[in-house]
Amino acid sequence: MHVVATAGHVDHGKSTLVRALTGMEPDRLDEERRRGLTIELGYAWTELPSGGRLAFVDVPGHERFLATMLAGVGPVPAVMFVVAADEGWMPQSEEHLVALEALGVRHCLLVVTRSDLADPAPVVAQALARLDTAGLGEVAAVAVSGRTGQGLPELRRALDRLVTGLPRPDPAAAVRLWIDRAFSVTGSGTVITGTLPAGTVSVGDELLLAGEPVRVRGLESLKEPRDTVTGVARVAVNLRGHDVPGRGHALVTPGGWTATDLVDVRVTSVGGHVAGPRREAAGLPRRLTVHIGSAAVAAEARPLGGRVVRLRLARPVPLHLGDVLLLRDPGRDRSEMRVLAGARVLDVRPPALGRRGAARQRAAFLESAFLESALPEPAPLQPAPLQPALPEAVASGTAYALRLHRLLRAADLRAMGVAPGTPGTSGEWYADPGHWRDLGRRLVEAVRHYAAGHPLDPAMPIEAARHELGLPDRQLVATLVRPPLTLAGGRIVAGPAGLPEQVARAVEQLRRDLAARPFHAPDAGRLAELGLGPRELAAAERAGSLLRVGEGVALLPGADARAAELLGRLPQPFTVSQARHALGTTRRVAVPLLEHLDRAGLTERVDEVRRRCR
Ligand SMILES: Nc1nc2c(ncn2[C@@H]2O[C@H](COP(=O)(O)OP(=O)(O)OP(=O)(O)O)[C@@H](O)[C@H]2O)c(=O)[nH]1
Ligand SMILES: [Mg+2]
């Protein structure tokens, strides 16, 4: 199914066209029919010549209902832009276009209607010229009459072409269903409706609504009951209870979004209407209304520098990095141009700004991160055929998020809309590569500093190192331990270089053996062959070239952290024999290695036979 919203000046014939195309009535209210004016969003659908189904969200054109118009267009990927042949481009044509541009809509069809009243050609030319200067991409045009039906077959074909060019959203994407209507049904709770832009909703799913878990009891799409619906689609969801939040709230996948009332955004100038003399965000009014999906939320704007603005929202909204917001001046009455700008969400977890100059620094940092790494595109806006292969898009979004936050868990990345594609840097943790190198250097310094301060007990406890580097998890410290550092009994030592020549060569040989099979410690025969007795092994360990996990059991430094990582992927808790299989080694190595991991605090015993990772 496809969903297209209408747009255009009041009374230009949007609802008449939807009626003519679908045979359904988009204006459902008595008041709408009495006044001949759309007040609320209307819904109707039809079958296209290709057999595909097309649903319309019909919006009001009157300037007083701009918020309703935005709620209708917000979650929808494509627009049928209507202009009357006998009136041409009008103020709300302009206002709607500016809104579409701010929302980043890239799929649009121009329909010049009421062609029975005037020659459509001049208006087609006029409207195309204006649309051409907006960022909506290639726009096709059709001239029709909603009254006589002239041109409707061409319009149907043009709509077919429009929707076949639309992006195919990911059915596995996190769900964010913005509610555009909510009503009580006697005996069966509340029904909410909305446009699902991507992802899948099924009966029985547990989703979040305004932070509260809700269960999908029933599902319909275009008035037909369904077990499961995949975006893009119009959906009606039956929920338990009558006290359910309505328009402007969203049903979301738990863990799939960051619910936040504080965001840093980058303002885009739209149609030259960004306020301020230098078109910088500094010219924005302090009080704004932020629109996203069907939501309109009051916000306070704090310009940080350049185009970067911090927005404090009146309530938390589920967001991803890269989301597009529309900023509007709530205005006392009719200010001249009320849509101010579009804005991309640059950060959903911005840090507090304390020191003087911090705002400006933050703005410069975000601006360069934005320019240098790719922000993810929100689902309804992705251009279909040109869309980069998914892993690449995901990787670049991950890189962007890590540049901002340096260290994040897989769950944080998912909530920011940049699902991690590759294994983590350390277990569930992902690190910005530059930051990770820096941490490695700082750890070496910290360990040396510690050794200098504790000559009698120079090995630095992991916990002390974690504290020193300000890291949230010991596992990160263990992964950072690499030569010249080595982990021994839960402590980190920096090995002095310089082993006797002969020992160094034997150790080098051993390192080569271990490179291929990291948990296959040499047996007594091999050690004797290399001339490595207990004293030589101890010296090699002090030098940070080897790691001894037990008497005569030598591995490479870092093998313990690597083992902990592999064991972390096993179902917990696990037995020695499961660990042995996971590590591809024997009991001779596995038993002392696990005891070593216990001492290092990376694993712990659950009972006589089982352990788990900490
Ligand atoms: N002659 C003629 N009249 C039309 C045509 N299309 C619409 N009209 C008339 O224009 C008026 C407005 O039509 P609507 O379809 O309600 O316009 P709208 O764009 O939906 O208006 P809003 O939703 O209030 O913005 C009605 O009186 C229609 O009968 C057309 O193609 N030819
Ligand atoms: Mg209408």
Overview of this structure, please?
The chain has 614 residues and is α+β, with helices and mostly antiparallel strands. The protein is 32% helix and 27% strand. The protein has an eight-stranded antiparallel beta sheet with strand order 11-10-16-7-8-15-12-13, with no helix packed on it. Strands 2-3-1-4-5-6 form a six-stranded mixed beta sheet, with helices on both faces. Strand 2 and strand 3 form a beta hairpin. The chain is elongated and about 100 Å long. The chain starts with a strand and ends with a strand. The chain binds guanosine-5'-triphosphate and magnesium ion. Guanosine-5'-triphosphate (GTP) binds next to helix 1.
Short overview:
This protein has 614 residues and is an alpha+beta fold. Helix content is 32%, strand content 27%.
Jot down its keywords.
614 residues; six-stranded mixed sheet; 32% helix; 27% strand; binds guanosine-5'-triphosphate; binds magnesium ion
